[in-house]
């Protein structure tokens, strides 16, 4: 069952979606977004993602951990975490330490606080109002942070957000203590641990997608050179793979420092000599 906070967020998302549909300018932009999402490559990536997640869920089901009571938590994780991590595979995931940070983030104390705060909420109408206020204040804070002259405003907004956050958490703590026999159950523990488990098990896919992104980019750069035929291109990529394998950070450094030199060569011998002498030591 969805909490009032989740229903409030859904309400505002629906309002926003309807606004986009009604407004002609945003409707056209939304249409373009849908066209991109329906492209062959995006659908292929999404299919891989959903198949992989289905495999994780089935694995947890076989272990006796996952059941239908966790469907809502799974859907929320897919919507707000899985998609974000997947899109990060082309950018942030290529940064050194990204995967370690994600694992650490999933087990920080703030996760416990967020879980408790979201477990017990206000009534639906106050949650709808509160969600709007928090989003509005967050937007103001973001705008104020760009200008030095608005620093005092930013501090004030930060204070207001903190006060609201404390109110939400205090309410959650009060209701948790009051209803601890329900909160302190195995189902609650499973619900709390599920996003952590899903994230850890999902990261290998993000890693593989990041690897694919780099190799695909290298292949695309080589294709741009008409003098590099298909056989030579495959030879180059094979040598890159033999040297770096699945070392994401090393591949990223190679892509940055050495790829421009590599695309100049026209023969296997030149490529062989280059890898033997000149590739950046990583």
Summarize the structure.
The protein is built from 14 helices and no strands. The chain is mainly α and 282 residues long. The chain has two domains: 199 residues, no CATH class; 54 residues.
Write a structural description.
Keywords: Membrane, Transmembrane, Transmembrane helix. The chain crosses the membrane at residues 6-22, 42-62, 74-91, 103-122, 128-144, 156-177, 192-215. This protein has 282 residues and is mainly alpha-helical. It folds into two domains: 4-202, no CATH class; 224-277. The protein contains 14 helices and no strands. It has helices at residues 4-22, 24-37, 40-62, 71-88, 98-105, 109-119, 124-144, 151-178, 180-183, 186-223, 230-244, 248-257, 259-262, 268-277. Helix 10 (186-223) crosses helix 11 (230-244) and helix 11 (230-244) packs parallel to helix 14 (268-277). The longest helix is centred in the last third of the chain and has 38 residues, at 186-223. The chain is globular and about 75 Å long. The mean pLDDT is 78.
């Amino acid at each position: 069952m969805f909490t009032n906070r989740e229903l409030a967020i859904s309400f505002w998302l629906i309002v926003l979606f309807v606004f986009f549909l009604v407004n002609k300018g945003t409707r056209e932009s939304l249409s373009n977004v849908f066209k991109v999402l329906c492209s062959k490559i995006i659908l292929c990536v999404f299919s891989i993602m959903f198949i992989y997640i289905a495999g994780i869920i089935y694995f947890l089901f076989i272990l006796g951990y996952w059941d239908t009571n966790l469907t809502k938590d799974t859907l929320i994780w897919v919507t707000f975490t899985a998609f974000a991590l997947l899109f990060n595979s082309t950018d942030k995931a290529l940064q050194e330490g990204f995967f370690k940070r994600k694992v650490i983030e999933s087990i920080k104390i703030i996760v416990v606080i967020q879980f408790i705060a979201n477990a017990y909420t206000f009534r639906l109408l106050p949650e709808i109002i509160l969600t709007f206020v928090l989003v509005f204040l967050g937007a103001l804070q973001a705008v104020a942070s760009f200008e030095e002259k608005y620093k005092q405003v930013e501090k004030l907004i930060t204070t207001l957000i903190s006060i609201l956050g404390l109110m939400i958490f205090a309410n959650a703590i009060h209701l948790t203590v009051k209803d601890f026999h329900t909160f302190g159950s195995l189902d609650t523990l499973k619900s709390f641990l599920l996003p952590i488990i899903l994230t850890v098990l999902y990261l290998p896919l993000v890693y593989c997608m990041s690897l694919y992104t780099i190799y695909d980019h290298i292949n695309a750069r080589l294709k741009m050179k008409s003098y590099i035929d298909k056989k030579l291109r495959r030879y180059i990529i094979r040598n890159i793979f033999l040297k770096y394998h699945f070392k994401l950070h090393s591949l990223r450094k190679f892509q940055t420092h050495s790829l421009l030199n590599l695309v100049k060569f026209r023969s296997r011998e030149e490529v062989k000599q280059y890898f033997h002498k000149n590739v950046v030591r990583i």
